[in-house]
Amino acid sequence: MKTMLLSSVALCAALAAPFAAADEAGMAAAGLQLFKHHCTACHSLDTSENAFGPSLVGVVGRPAASVPRFAYSQAMQASGLTWNEDNLRKWITDNEALVPGTRMRHVAITDKAEQDYLISFLRTLK
Question: 91 and 98 in contact (C-beta within 8 Å)?
Fold first, then answer.
């Protein structure tokens, strides 16, 4: 009985994997659209070029104020942040509250689903 239960759990996990990957791809695609609407005016997806803001390639897991050749504000340099999901969500919601004195204009994407989509897209930028 125990072996049968474990086999059933393994089968369910194996069947769910393609759906999870498809769901993540769909979320990233929705995030790309949000990125195009909210972010591309200031952020590049090219690692060799910064725009008004730094390139966001590799942002997830990266220490704040660490992209070469970009002049960060004193506030961002002193923030000590690492761009994990929690900090990205706070930044997307109200960057001025997270890092008072930042030069980035306030974005305010407060819808949790839109935040999820955008963060999912940012995770794809490696």
Answer: yes
Give residues with Cβ within 8 angstroms of 70, minimum separation 6: 50, 53, 54
Domains of the chain: 19-124 (1.10.760.10)
Residue 5 · residue 13 · CB < 8 Å: no
- Angstrom distance (rounded) from CA 90 to CA 96: 10
- pLDDT tens digits, one per residue of 55-89: 999 999 999 999 998 999 999 999 999 999 999 99
Task: Tell me, rounded to whole angstroms, the distance of Cα 72 from its chain centroid.
Answer: 19
Euclidean distance between CA atoms 123 and 73, whole angstroms = 24
Which pLDDT score, from 0 to 100, does residue 113 have?
A: 97
The gap between the terminal CA atoms of the chain, to the nearest Å, is: 44
Query: What are 3's two structure tokens?
Result: 């072996």
pTM as predicted: 0.81
Q: Is the pLDDT score of 111 beyond 50?
A: yes
Q: How many CA atoms lie within 13 A of 10 on its CB side?
A: 6
